Amino acid sequence: MSTAGPALLAALAASIALIIVLCGRFRLHPFLAIVLATYAFGLLAMGVGVATDADRKFVDNLAGTIAEGFGSILASIGLVILFGTIIGKVLERTGAAVTLAEGVLKVVGKRHPALAMSLMGWVVSVPVFCDSGYVVLSPLQRSIARKTGKNPVVLGTALATGLYASHTFVPPTPGPIAAAGNVGIGSDGLIWVILFSIPVSLVAAAAGLVWALRRTGDLESRLPDAQQTFEEYKAQFERLPSMGSALAPIIVPIVLMAVGSVAAFPADGGTLVGGAFGAFLTDLGNPVNALLIGVLLALALLPPKRDAQALTTWVAEGLVDAAPILVITGAGGAFGAVIKGTPIADYIASLIGDGSSVSGVTALLVLFGLAALLKTAQGSSTAALIITSTLAQPLLPALGLDGTMGSIPIGQVMAVLAIGAGAMVVSHVNDSYFWVVSQFSGMDVKTAYRAQTAATLVQGLTALAFVLLLGLVVL
């Protein structure tokens, strides 16, 4: 192990570097980049095993290990990602996202337009991708800018950072769901990711809002005079769903998962709610079942006269949106399976040992740094979440992040939060969201760097600080 360990660690570092180069320099899709890096690491690990005369093969049957890892992660999390994406697409297409935005605006009031934009962005991006959410809400942002005389850059940055915060932290957004599954959080633990990620994401949203208010007021927007008003955008929909029906596809699955988790909570040698009823609540709270109910509630938003072809198209669009995430997630699972096939985790554990400084809270910094490196290099927050969580899973015991707090997989939850904070740093020209924000807010590249890119850096660092403080308490 003393000879093989450093070589395996170097092989893993080279594989990560390969992903960064393929995605960043050659613009290769993350799926292919991860697959190629997986094969590279597997072959290097096998070579290390032969060169060091290891007593067992490192990664026996490479192709079989990759296929098994790809399939197993999709079996555990694939339907959850699909259902979550379909919910988001239906909310977008039925105008439910507009209803949610208007509801936030009424609560906050038009006296605080930047706060309203941040909060409505946070709410809408829980089920809807931040890119789509920004496109949906941009007419409202421009309309409010005209009515209030506020700088469109300030409002655009507040909206963008609000959307970004929940997008990188809060399930059922697919990225955090995939990261939770990759680090080994089962269906009964997903509710804890949701509950812990909400305050972290709100802190990140607040940091983005403060940056928008304090640092972007002097920046200029180049929005043309002739723009669609929010009222004109609303007129595209036959009727808007009520607030209750718009919230139901988001809130009901979360409540069901929470109830199922509470019912399964250990108590007196059994569970808090025993018998057939307890089993029923636990099954109902399974994320697959809960999100399927969310899909059905989303479909109930359809206007009575909506033709079946439109519904089929919307669902198909949701599946198209989910496809890249599914294949990246599967590739990440394959990479993780190959890593597990080697003794690299044992080697890292031997380096760390008891009382090492690279464990627990400090290990969260390592995960943050890796996610930030991947995000900045290749642009996609979702890909950074998936790749980093894949690499982290076999190393969690060695990093002191496999502990529990009662029935809460607290070490894994904190790992997901640290990775999410890293996946925010930073949004720049290789990120599609950067261009959505800049173009729909009338920012040139220099302005967008000062507003969007700088704001995401502040968000990620603020979220990290909050996660580290939280880690000091719970780890």
From TrEMBL:
Transmembrane domains' residue ranges: 33-54, 66-87, 152-170, 190-213, 246-264, 284-302, 314-339, 351-374, 413-436, 457-474
Database matches in InterPro entries: Glcn_transporter
Keywords: Membrane, Transmembrane, Transmembrane helix
Protein name, entry field: GntP family permease
Naturally occurring in which organism (per UniProt): Streptomyces yaizuensis
Lineage, opening ranks: Bacteria, Bacillati, Actinomycetota, Actinomycetes, Kitasatosporales
